[in-house]
Amino acid sequence: MDACTSVTHPSSCSSAFMGHNFQRISHSHCSVAVKEEAVTWRLTAARYASSPKRRQSLTYFPAPRLAIRGAATKPSKSPAEEDWSIKRAKLVEKRVRSVDPKEALRLQNENSFVILDVRPEAEFNEAHPPGAINVEIYRLIKEWTAWDIARRAAFAFFGIFQGTEENPNFLQTVESKLDKDAKIIVACSSGGTMKPSQNLPEGQQSRSLIAAYLLVLKGYTKVYHLDGGLYAWFKEGLPAVSKE
């Protein structure tokens, strides 16, 4: 058994396990209950000495059978967690263009493009382009499953008490606001890039590029990406409003 694993005898377990031949094992990643079978087997050993032959019957329990209860198991990988190289290839295949902030403003004003701001709601409320729609692709962790509790603890270990998770309702919310033929410019804080460079031969992914990837997978065909993100938008002094 691993060094980080401890076993508690049934007599010290909670009443929920009393009377059921369960032992609890506490591991660094999960809690395991161990059930001892009621089956026994006998080993008869013959002892020979100067006195007449004697037989001694010894009874043993077999190795316990493990039954895992409520382990903190990570959910299966979602499309948003796909490798960046695969996301980038799909974005290039679907001809997702990156536009700078001034070009994005022109497209918004002259060609009916909608800016889809995928930052957290709190950031959107502080400042955003006029007319932008907010659907956060990542949200504050809301659930309390074993996996979510483990993730909260991991964030807290690094001093981060506002940990985020993928928003499972992202696409559903976008579909309720924008039709499949809508002209969309996806924006986040930093923007990321699909352009290769010496240090980043495959570019660098961002929340907006991940969102663009999810949108093209869903069938949206007119998806652009804000190069430089909203940081560049605000830095250039382009229009911005706040939501109180």
Protein topology:
Layout: E1 6-8, E2 22-26, E3 31-35, E4 41-47, E5 54-60, E6 65-68, H1 84-93, E7 97-99, H2 101-110, E8 114-117, H3 121-126, E9 133-134, E10 138-140, H4 146-157, E11 164-166, H5 170-177, E12 184-187, H6 207-218, E13 223-226, H7 229-235
Parallel strand pairs: 7-13, 8-9, 8-12, 12-13
Antiparallel strand pairs: 1-2, 2-3, 3-6, 4-5, 10-11
Helix pairs in contact: 1-6
InterPro entries: Rhodanese-like_dom (IPR001763), Rhodanese-like_dom_sf (IPR036873), Str14 (IPR043186)
Domain Rhodanese: 109-242
Pfam family, one: Rhodanese
The percentage of residues in β strands lies in: 15-25%
Question: What is the chains' assembly state?
Answer: single chain
Helix- and strand-based class? alpha/beta
> How many domains make up the 3D coordinates?
2
CATH class of the largest domain: Alpha Beta
Q: How would you sum up this structure, described in words?
A:
This protein is α/β, with parallel strands linked by helices and 244 residues long. It folds into 2 domains: 6-68, no CATH class; 79-235, Rhodanese-like domain (Oxidized Rhodanese, domain 1, 3-Layer(aba) Sandwich). The protein is 27% helix and 22% strand. It has helices spanning 84-93, 101-110, 121-126, 146-157, 170-177, 207-218, 229-235, and strands at 6-8, 22-26, 31-35, 41-47, 54-60, 65-68, 97-99, 114-117, 133-134, 138-140, 164-166, 184-187, 223-226. The chain has a 5-stranded parallel sheet with strand order 7-13-12-8-9. The protein has a 4-stranded antiparallel sheet with strand order 1-2-3-6, with no helix packed on it. Helix 1 (84-93) packs across helix 6. It is globular and about 40 Å long. The two termini are 56 Å apart. Mean pLDDT is 74; it is low at 1-71 and 155-161.
